[in-house]
Amino acid sequence: MKIIVCVKQVPDTSEVRIDQKTGTMIREGVKSIINPDDLSGLEAALRIKDKNNAEVIALSMGPKQADNALRECLAMGVDRAILLSDRAFAGADTWVTSLVLSKAVELLSPDLVICGRQAIDGDTAQVGPQIAEHLNLPSVAYVSDIKLESNESLVVKRMFEDGYQSIRVKTPCLLTVLKEINEARYMRVSRIYNAYKADLVELWDNSTLGFDPLVLGLKGSPTKVKKSYTKGVKTAGKVFDVPPKEAARIIADKLKENYIL
Ligand SMILES: Cc1cc2nc3c(=O)[nH]c(=O)nc-3n(C[C@H](O)[C@H](O)[C@H](O)COP(=O)(O)OP(=O)(O)OC[C@H]3O[C@@H](n4cnc5c(N)ncnc54)[C@H](O)[C@@H]3O)c2cc1C
């Protein structure tokens, strides 16, 4: 079985600051990490590999420094790590990001593609399902458990706030996984040494993928960002020290006032 895990290098958002004048993220000096959901996706793939001898490939689109995230994936135990990097990809929205990733997926022809549910910086949760759409693959989102039935089918658990669905899905397919699916393993010391010693990350640019540059980057992106800004801090709430019935009436009145009821 061949498994691709899509891995995004993201700024550690607990440290992110916004430039109040331009409304853009200040990236200088901000530590980069592997998107947390993707670490869980990697762990899920590596657990399948441990039991079933699968080949696991980490795939990322990003600037050259995303190479670091992929070395971490190699140190965790993936067999190959591929970085899609080209000046023509810069400025891509989710549509173009998923288009580029899907071309690489098509070239690699896997049985299973695993994405994180959501990236902690872009936060759209669109890229996984869009890759599936570009390739006409069946996809299941919000996955919290994966059981391999055979090379041809999986049974996955799809988590909701109030329950879950158990779904049998045929391969090749794409899953987007929740962070809660598992706890990712640490990198192995011997593997860290190998991952950093040699140039093991494969670099694919647009000459490998073969896109017309006009469909890539900012030019090919249908999303236009008009403005981005930090949400203002809310003032402290009002406390009503009243009996429960009176409190319920006040809440209901407020909801009606705001057209929620
Ligand atoms: C007009 C426009 C211009 C932009 N320009 C830039 C830019 O110049 N530089 C920039 O960094 N961002 C840019 N972005 C943001 C960028 O488009 C998104 O970060 C990216 O498309 C992923 O979307 P997301 O973060 O919402 O991922 P989500 O859809 O939330 O991610 C879900 C999952 O998809 C996979 N995934 C997502 N992105 C990648 C990736 N790159 N590689 C591998 N797997 C991935 C991961 O498994 C992830 O967990 C731009 C956005 C817009 C709208």
Quick recap:
The chain is of the alpha/beta class. The protein is built from eight helices and 13 strands. The protein has a nine-stranded mixed sheet, sandwiched between helices.
Q: Domains counted in the coordinates: how many?
A: 1
Number of helices: 8
What portion of the residues fall into strands of 2 or more residues? 25-35%
| CATH homologous superfamily (4th level) name | HUPs
User: pLDDT below 50 for ≥5 consecutive residues: which ranges?
Assistant: none
Euclidean distance between termini CA atoms = 52 Å
The total count of strands amounts to 13
Q: Average pLDDT across residues?
A: 92
CATH topology: Rossmann fold
Helix content: 25-40%
For the biggest β-sheet, the strand order reads: 11-10-9-12-8-1-6-7-13
Q: H/E element string?
A: EEEEEHEHEHEHEEEEHEHHH
- Report the structural category: alpha/beta
Q: Report the top-level CATH class.
A: Alpha Beta
- Tell the overall outline: globular
Bound molecules: flavin-adenine dinucleotide
What integer value in Å does the Rg equal? 21 Å
CATH architecture: 3-Layer(aba) Sandwich
What profile does the largest beta sheet have?
9 strands, mixed
Plain-language structure description:
31% of the residues lie in helices and 25% in strands. By secondary structure, it is of the alpha/beta class. The chain has a single domain, classed as HUPs (Rossmann fold, 3-Layer(aba) Sandwich), CATH 3.40.50. The strands form three sheets. It has a nine-stranded mixed beta sheet with strand order 11-10-9-12-8-1-6-7-13, with helices on both faces. Helix 2 runs antiparallel to helix 5 and helix 3 packs across helix 4. The longest helix is centred in the N-terminal third of the chain and has 17 residues. The protein is globular. The termini are far apart. The mean pLDDT is 92. Bound molecules: flavin-adenine dinucleotide. The site of flavin-adenine dinucleotide has 32 residues, from helix 1, strand 6, helix 3, strand 8 and helix 4.
